[in-house]
Design a protein that fits this description.
Blueprint: H1 4-16, H2 21-59, H3 69-90, E1 98-100, H4 102-116, E2 123-128, E3 135-137, H5 139-158, E4 171-179, E5 182-189, H6 217-227, E6 231-237, E7 241-249
Parallel strand pairs: 2-4
Antiparallel strand pairs: 1-3, 4-5, 5-7, 6-7
Helix pairs in contact: 1-2, 2-3, 3-6, 5-6
């Protein structure tokens, strides 16, 4: 599978030698189509396997006590989630763009996330500009980006527990505003932070330092943001928290 670095090199070759543009684009399109086909062909039968597993459990509850049964179920769930995320990654650049009221869009994101952590010890606050310039984007995919980053922030913050240095509160802050022709959204948490040696590859597909993670969540977010001609960046200090910044140009 191509990494972001591979894609960057291919794009550089396309820019340096326009004569090869069509050939390289054909290679990229073929690569994407192969990934879509493979993930689709595997995901369908795996979904049937998972449904059959649920049916067996419902009709024969005693199987849940069998040795390795939980491990089998967990492995199938993991593969199912991995293929679903791979599908999202493959389709990350296929946008359905429409005019958006960005303020109302972010209000829905904030409400949805606040509801999801209502019973957790994490404090969540948000600050939204009262008005944003007209913006065009894919609301479904951008929603996926922001909720994914907020969920990651919640996991990182909750994992600190009572070990938070200097008795800092476990909190997450979201700030959205417009500046210099861009909409900028920052998501900051007071969580465990990301070790410096991990920062350079956290957006690479299938690279994960989280137990049980697929390594596709941030890669999907990056692909969606860049498909909007935007940028996503991260600043983090281990043990002190993390800030993700998403910059979306107003076209």
């Amino acid at each position: 599978m191509f990494t972001d670095t591979d894609y960057d090199k291919l794009r550089q070759l396309m820019a340096q030698n326009p004569g090869n543009r069509a050939l390289i684009q054909k290679l990229l399109d073929s690569h994407e189509e192969t990934l879509r086909t493979v993930s689709h062909e595997i995901r369908n039968p795996l979904t049937l396997v998972y449904s059959t597993l649920q049916l067996i459990e419902a009709q024969h509850p005693e199987v849940t006590t069998f040795r390795h049964w939980d491990s089998l179920r967990d492995d199938i769930i993991y593969m199912k989630e991995l293929l679903e995320e791979l599908s999202s990654y493959n389709n990350g650049s296929a946008l359905s763009v429409k005019s958006m009221n960005f303020r109302k869009f972010m209000e829905q994101i904030v409400l949805s996330f606040a509801t999801s952590i209502a019973d957790s010890p994490v404090e969540f606050s948000s600050c939204l500009d009262p008005a944003f310039p007209p913006f065009c984007g894919d609301p479904i995919k951008l929603r996926e980006v922001f909720l994914n980053l907020l969920r990651n922030a919640a996991e990182a913050t909750e994992s600190t527990g009572d070990l938070n240095p200097e008795n800092r509160k476990n909190n997450i802050q979201l700030h959205a505003f417009s500046k210099n022709g861009n909409i900028i959204v920052t998501i900051t948490d007071s969580g465990c932070g990301i070790p410096e040696e991990f920062l350079s590859d956290i957006f690479q597909p299938f690279v994960t330092h989280k137990q049980g993670g697929t390594g596709l969540g941030l890669a999907i977010s990056k692909r969606i943001v860049e498909s909007h001609s935007g940028q996503i960046s991260v600043q983090s200090t281990e043990g002190m928290g993390t800030t993700f910044t998403i910059t979306l140009p107003i076209k």
